[in-house]
Design a protein that fits this description.
single chain, alpha/beta, nine-stranded mixed beta sheet
Amino acid sequence: GNLYGAREYQVWVPAGYDPAQPRPLLLVLHGCVNGPNLMGEASGFNDVADVEGYITVYPRQNVTANPARCWNWQLPVNQARGSGEASILAGIVDAVKGDYNVDARRVYVTGISAGGAMTSIMLACYSDVFAAGAVHSGGMYKGATTVSGSAYALLAGSIYSPDGNGRSPSPRPIPLLVFHGSADATVNPVNGQQAVRQFLQTNDLADDGIDNDSVKYVPTSTIAGQVPGGRAYTVYNYTYGGQLLAQHYVIHGMGHAWSGSTSGLPFTDPKGPDATLITW
């Protein structure tokens, strides 16, 4: 906690953890009416962590901060480095680094819905902390700056320019993965498109310090996929300088859900590609 409040968090320590060996860290931000336990179960990140050896961190939003336990991504106080919920989440990462042997070069963040929008904030404001991130069924950095604006963004996409919002406080190269269902009636899929464009703009500025469209919002390749017995999906890849900067999964016919989860929990879809393994 800090002057902006405090949040609880849970840490999943992978099987075979050796304090002498630095491990990657994944910060996972839940959506509304959710929490660490359900998020861990829905995503299956803990099972993957036991195999791959990364530490998983699940913060919990306070009901006093938001009755539905949504991260308040739409409030300006939470959209800046060293401020609001963003500063608390960054503090949680620092606390875990103090308690466990974390490889500081391999710290990542992901989240779904409100947690996805909060992921964009963390990537934009703390790109020196996170090596990459994944936004699931969420939106771009500063997609809204008021409660009424957030309602509109969820319905029809942000009124703000992704290019303008891509001029983040700390434009450093940062890879982004986006997952979104084409039939998402809770968070309009255009929000996923805007998140990709916003971070490509950030990467454009990080490339040479100039907004010169060196990194373009044009896919360098497009791949069609099909889950056996499940959903079709399209992957849009954005590569620059031999590096994959952004990857956008559009899962056809999927609603507001974590893709590929077999948990049976709300806001999950077992017929989509395995977002958890792909994210890792």
